[in-house]
Amino acid sequence: MSTFNGSRFLSEQLESIYAQRGVVARLLVRDDGSTDNTVDLLWHEQVQGRLRWYTGQNLGPARSFLDLLEKADDGADLYAFSDQDDVWDDDKLLVASSAIGGERRPALYFCQTRLVDERLGDLPQMPISPRLTYGEALVYQFVGGCTMVFNKALRDIVTRYTPEYLRMHDVWIYDIAQAVGAKVVFDAVPHIRYRQHSGNVIGQTASASSQWGERLRRLRRHEHIRWRTAQELLKGYSSLMLPENRGLTVAIVGYRISLSKKLSLLFSRELRPASKTIALTSKLAILLNLF
Is the pTM here over 0.70, yes or no? Predict the structure, then answer.
């Protein structure tokens, strides 16, 4: 768990983690420079022997979670991320553990979120139906880190390379899992109440119009999210990628200077995401060299 000024909801989330049934869970927390009483709460929980925690400079959520992954117990079978303000169902880790099973190859599980307000009242939901392909992963950022559980084989692959460009830790890890041919399991049943409130660093309740606005702003900023991510994947994991995934990644990295690569991406069936909206904006980004 990464915390940052999270004292308002932290205790409730911690209790839901302690209440997990059917598994033995150990909790490691990194505080990302809180200025409220989050640290006091963590000290109290550590004294009670319920968690371990440490602190460091403010890295933001993506880098903070990757730092946690590097420092986590090397002997664990499975690893999971937790936000500071959600509430887990008591079977969250058990369901994920059962889904992955004793898989020896890299494996990752994630599930649908159940959106709730500050008081845990249900909000309009945003269900996803991902195709679970590498090509989709490169264009459609839908996976929620707070629902992810993955095995040590995948954790060891992730921690072998630290990217210079990193948008979010969960998308990055999902991309790696798909790139190397990991077993990926999506559970359409939510096992987490994903709290939406004014202090969210990241949330899912933005309107359709605001989501479109953000996509267009990214295009105008020439952020090249997908191109830069593909570069990092190729640098860190080229030797581990499935051959077809390496070829697709090479095409993305080179599409801005190669007409043939650009055309191959425009007509690629591999890049087709479940979301028609994302498919449209992705093709536009490729045409304008903004992918």
Answer: yes
Task: Say how far apart CA 283 and CA 262 lie, in whole Å.
Answer: 10
HSE, side-chain direction, 13 A CA sphere, residue 174 = 30
Spatial distance between the Cα atoms of 84 and 251, rounded to a whole number of angstroms: 38
Does residue 205 carry a pLDDT above 60?
A: no
Give the residue among 236, 279, 227, 232 at the shortest CA–CA distance from 255. 227
Torsions phi, psi of 191, nearest 5?
Answer: -130, 25
Q: How far apart are CA 98 and CA 152, in angstroms?
A: 15
Partners of 31 in the beta sheet? 3, 55
Cα→Cα distances 12→77, 156, 193, Å: 26, 31, 12
* Contact (CB, 8 A) for 281 and 226: no
In angstroms, the CA 290 to CA 284 distance is: 8
Q: What is the pLDDT of residues 107-132, one digit of tens each?
A: 999 999 999 999 999 999 999 999 99
What is the average pLDDT score of the chain? 93
Q: Is 177 exposed, middle or buried (0-12, 13-18, 19+ CB in 10 A)?
A: buried
Question: What are the CA-CA distances from residue 224 to residues 29, 231, 282 (Å)?
Answer: 32, 11, 11
Cβ–Cβ under 8 Å, residues 66 and 166: yes
Tokens of 238: 């080229």
Q: Amino acid identity, residue 151? A: N
- The DSSP secondary structure of 240-278, one letter per residue, reads GS-HHHHHHHHHHHHTTT-HHHHHHHHT-STT--S-HHH
* Phi then psi dihedrals of residue 208, to 5 deg: -60, -40
